[in-house]
C-alpha cells in the first residue's frame, strides 16, 4: 500500500528552496549545535558559535587527507566525541576507484534521513511526469561485504549502509515499487549469483515491473551484457521451475526457489522475444512491457555507458538519478524529463551546509607558469545562494556526520535556479589523472578522447566496452597508455588510427607542446581480452566494493599493482601513435 503523498513532498521542496539561504543558516546551526562538543570543533575555538561568518573564519577547508587521523581514531574504537557529538558507529567505504584508494568516511542515521529526503523528492517529481502503478521494480542492487574495523565498527559501502537500514526499507516500500528480488539476493555473498537471480526474478514478475534501476549506469549495462550470455539458461529455469545449478549459495537458492514455479508459457514467450531481437536492441521494453523508464546515475563517469544503455532501453526514457557521494547527498534530479546528458541536480538546502569554490579560467600566461592547479585559479568559497549561473565551482560539504568544510573534489556548473537553490550539472572530478610534466588531463579529457577515437570503430559496429589509462614513466620520456576492451576484434590499421586519434585528442597545450618536443613519448593503445574489465570489477568487489556502486578506475597508477597486472596480463595487441611524426 502506498501512503506516500507526492504533492506534499513537492510542496515541502518548494517551500524549503524558496528560502534556501535561511535553511542553510539553520542547517549549519543545527549541525554545530549537535556537534559543538566534538574535539575537532572545540580545538578550532568556535566556542559555541553557530553563525556562518564565525564558522568560515575559524574552520579551515579540508580534504579527506586532513581528516584521516580523526577518522582513523574513530575506526580504531575511540568513542569520545571526535568529529561528532554522538559517537559514530558505522563507517562508509567510498568506491575508491576514482583515486585508486578506498576512503573511510563516518556514517550515521542523519545520512539515512537525507538519502530518504533526496529519494522522495526526485521520486515525487518523476512520478508527476511518469506515474507508476503499485507494481514492482527490477532493481540491480547489491549489499557489499561488511568488514569490521580495528575498533569493531561496521565498514561497508554507503549504499549497503543505507539499504540495510530498516527505516529506509519501510520508506522505500512506501514510495518506490517493491524490488522483484528477495533480500537474500540483494545481500547474497556472491554478486554473480545475485545478478543472475535479479534477472530471473525480474522476469518472473515481468508484467508487474514498473521501472528498472541500478545505482549507476555501469551496473545496468553490465546486467544486460550478462543477460546476453545467460538468457537461455534463465528460460530453462522458468520452464522447468528448477533453479540453475550455478546458484550454490544456500540462502539465495532457498529464497529464489520459493518464487520459481514451472511456467512454460512465460519461458516460451521470453524465448521468442529474445530470438526476435536484433542485436538485443530494445530488450528492456520487450521483456518488461509495463516498464515506464530506466533509472540510475548516468552522468559524469557513467556517460560512456549511455550509448549501450540506450540500445538496450530502445524507446524507454532514461532518467538520471540524484547526485551524492559517500560523504553525503547534494542534489535531487527534479527535471526528470531532461536527457541524461543535460541532467541537473537541485541542491536540498536542509540536508547539509554547502559552499562552492569558484574556478576562474587561467589566462594563457598564468597557464604556462601553473604547475599545481589545472587550467584554473581558485577564489574564496561562496555560499549556496551566491553562486552564478554559467560558472563552475568545486563543491564543499559540511554534513551531520562530522565533515566540516570538506572539499569533495567534484566540479559542477550552475545551470540555473529552482526558486533560490541552484541547479547543478556534474562536470568532472577535479583531480588530474594523466600528467607527466606540464600536461594536465582529467577523467573528462580522457573520456572525450576515447569518445572521439571510438567513432572510428563505429563503422565496423565495434564498441569500446570499457577503458582506463596509465602513465608509463618506466621509459624515458614517459608516455600515456590507454587500455581498451572491445566488443569484438578489429583490424590493425583501424586500431592504429584510433591510437593516433587518441593522441591528437588530448588537446591541452601542455600535452601538445610536450609531444611536439618529445618530452612525452608516443601514446600507446593496448587492447585487452574480452572479460578483462570484469576481472577488474571482481577484484574491487573482493576488496569490499558493491557491483551497483562500481566505477571503473579511469587511471591505474603503478601503486595499484594488482589492477595493472590484470590489465597487462590480458593485453592482446598494442599500437604506438605516429600522430606527431613529421
Ligand atoms: P562514491 O562515494 O564512491 O560513491 O563516489 C561518489 C562520487 O561519485 C561523487 O563524488 C561524484 O564524483 C560521483 N557521482 C555521484 N553521483 C553522481 C551523479 N549523479 N553524477 C555524476 N557523478 C556522480
What form results from the Cα inertia axes?
A: globular
End-to-end Cα distance = 71 Å
Instruction: Please describe the biggest sheet, giving its number of strands, its sense, and whether it closes into a barrel.
Output: 9 strands, antiparallel
Bound molecules: adenosine monophosphate
List segments where confidence is low: pLDDT < 50 over at least 5 consecutive residues: 367-373
| Average residue pLDDT | 92
Rg, please? 24 Å
Number of helices: 21
Helix content range: 25-40%
Q: DSSP strand (E) fraction?
A: 15-25%
- Count every beta strand, where a strand is a DSSP E run of 2 or more residues: 24
Question: What is the SS-derived class?
Answer: alpha+beta
What can you see in these coordinates?
- The N and C termini lie far apart (71 Å).
- The chain has 21 helices and 24 strands.
- Strand 10 (323-325) and strand 11 (328-332) form a beta hairpin.
- The strands form five sheets. Strands 10, 11, 12, 13, 14, 15, 16, 17 and 18 form a nine-stranded antiparallel sheet that branches.
- It is globular, with a radius of gyration of 24 Å.
- With 582 residues, it is of the alpha+beta class.
- Bound molecules: adenosine monophosphate.
- Adenosine monophosphate (AMP) binds at residues 94-95, 297, 299-300, 323-326, 408, 410, 426, 429, 549.
What's the helix and strand layout?
Elements: H1 6-18, H2 20-34, H3 39-43, H4 52-58, H5 64-75, E1 90-93, E2 104-107, H6 109-129, E3 136-139, E4 147-148, E5 154-157, H7 158-163, H8 166-175, E6 178-179, H9 183-186, H10 191-204, E7 209-216, H11 217-240, H12 250-259, H13 264-276, H14 283-287, E8 293-297, H15 306-313, E9 318-320, E10 323-325, E11 328-332, E12 345-347, E13 353-361, H16 364-369, E14 376-378, E15 382-383, E16 392-398, E17 406-418, E18 421-429, E19 432-434, E20 441-442, H17 443-458, E21 464-472, E22 479-486, H18 492-505, H19 509-516, E23 524-528, H20 532-543, H21 561-569, E24 571-576
Helix pairs in contact: 1-6, 6-8, 10-11, 11-13, 11-15, 17-18, 20-21
The protein binds adenosine monophosphate.
Adenosine monophosphate is lined by residues 94-95, 297, 299-300, 323-326, 408, 410, 426, 429, 549.
Amino acid at each position: 500500500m502506498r501512503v506516500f503523498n507526492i504533492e506534499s513532498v513537492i510542496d515541502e521542496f518548494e517551500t524549503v528552496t524558496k528560502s534556501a539561504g535561511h535553511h542553510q543558516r539553520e542547517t549549519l546551526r543545527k549541525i554545530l549545535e549537535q556537534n559543538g562538543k566534538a574535539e575537532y570543533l572545540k580545538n578550532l575555538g568556535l566556542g559555541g558559535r553557530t553563525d556562518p561568518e564565525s564558522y568560515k573564519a575559524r574552520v579551515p577547508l579540508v580534504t579527506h587527507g586532513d581528516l584521516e587521523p580523526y577518522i582513523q581514531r574513530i575506526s580504531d574504537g575511540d568513542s569520545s566525541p571526535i568529529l561528532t557529538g554522538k559517537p559514530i558507529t558505522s563507517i562508509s567505504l567510498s568506491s575508491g576507484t576514482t583515486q585508486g584508494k578506498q576512503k573511510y568516511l563516518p556514517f550515521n542515521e542523519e545520512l539515512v534521513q537525507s538519502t530518504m529526503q533526496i529519494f522522495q523528492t526526485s521520486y515525487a517529481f518523476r512520478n508527476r511526469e511518469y506515474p507508476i502503478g503499485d507494481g514492482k521494480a527490477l532493481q540491480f542492487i547489491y549489499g557489499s561485504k561488511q568488514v569490521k574495523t580495528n575498533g569493531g565498527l561496521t565498514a561497508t559501502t554507503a549504499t549497503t549502509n543505507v539499504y540495510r537500514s530498516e527505516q529506509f526499507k519501510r520508506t522505500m516500500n512506501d514510495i518506490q515499487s517493491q524490488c522483484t528480488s528477495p533480500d537474500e539476493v540483494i545481500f547474497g555473498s556472491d554478486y554473480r549469483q545475485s545478478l543472475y537471480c535479479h534477472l530471473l526474478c525480474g522476469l518472473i514478475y515481468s508484467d508487474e515491473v514498473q521501472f528498472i534501476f541500478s545505482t549507476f549506469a555501469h551496473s545496468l549495462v553490465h546486467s544486460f551484457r550478462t543477460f546476453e550470455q545467460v538468457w537461455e539458461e534463465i528460460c530453462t529455469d522458468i520452464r522447468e521451475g528448477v533453479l540453475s545449478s550455478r546458484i550454490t549459495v544456500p540462502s539465495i537458492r532457498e529464497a529464489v526457489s520459493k518464487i520459481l514455479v514451472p511456467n512454460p508459457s512465460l519461458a516460451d514467450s521470453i524465448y521468442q522475444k529474445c530470438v526476435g531481437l536484433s542485436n538485443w536492441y530494445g530488450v528492456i521494453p520487450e521483456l518488461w512491457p509495463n516498464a515506464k523508464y530506466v533509472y540510475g546515475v548516468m552522468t559524469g563517469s557513467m556517460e560512456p555507458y549511455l550509448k549501450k544503455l540506450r540500445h538496450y532501453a530502445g524507446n524507454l526514457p532514461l532518467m538520471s538519478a540524484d547526485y551524492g557521494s559517500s560523504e553525503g547527498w547534494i542534489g535531487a534530479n527534479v527535471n526528470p524529463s531532461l536527457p541524461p546528458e543535460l541532467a541537473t541536480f537541485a541542491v536540498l538546502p536542509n540536508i547539509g551546509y554547502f559552499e562552492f569554490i569558484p574556478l576562474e579560467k587561467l589566462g594563457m600566461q598564468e597557464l604556462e607558469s601553473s604547475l599545481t592547479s589545472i587550467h584554473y585559479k581558485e577564489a574564496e568559497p561562496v555560499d549556496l545562494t551566491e553562486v552564478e549561473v554559467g560558472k563552475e565551482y568545486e563543491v564543499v560539504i559540511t554534513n551531520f556526520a562530522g565533515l566540516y568544510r570538506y572539499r569533495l573534489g567534484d566540479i559542477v556548473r550552475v545551470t540555473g535556479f529552482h526558486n533560490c537553490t541552484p541547479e547543478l550539472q556534474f562536470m568532472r572530478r577535479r583531480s588530474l589523472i594523466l600528467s607527466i610534466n606540464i600536461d594536465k588531463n582529467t577523467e573528462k579529457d580522457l573520456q572525450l578522447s576515447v569518445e572521439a577515437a571510438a567513432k572510428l570503430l563505429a563503422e565496423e559496429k565495434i564498441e569500446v566496452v570499457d577503458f582506463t589509462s596509465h602513465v608509463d614513466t618506466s621509459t624515458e620520456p614517459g608516455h600515456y597508455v590507454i587500455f581498451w576492451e572491445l566488443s569484438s576484434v578489429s583490424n590493425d590499421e583501424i586500431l592504429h588510427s584510433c591510437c593516433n586519434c587518441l593522441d591528437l585528442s588530448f588537446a591541452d597545450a601542455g600535452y601538445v607542446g610536450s609531444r611536439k618536443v618529445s618530452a612525452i613519448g608516443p601514446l600507446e593503445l593496448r587492447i585487452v581480452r574480452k572479460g578483462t574489465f570484469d576481472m577488474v570489477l571482481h577484484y574491487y568487489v573482493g576488496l569490499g566494493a558493491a557491483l551497483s556502486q562500481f566505477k571503473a578506475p579511469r587511471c591505474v597508477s603503478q601503486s595499484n599493482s594488482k589492477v595493472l597486472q590484470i590489465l597487462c596480463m590480458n593485453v592482446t595487441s598494442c599500437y604506438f601513435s605516429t600522430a606527431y611524426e613529421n
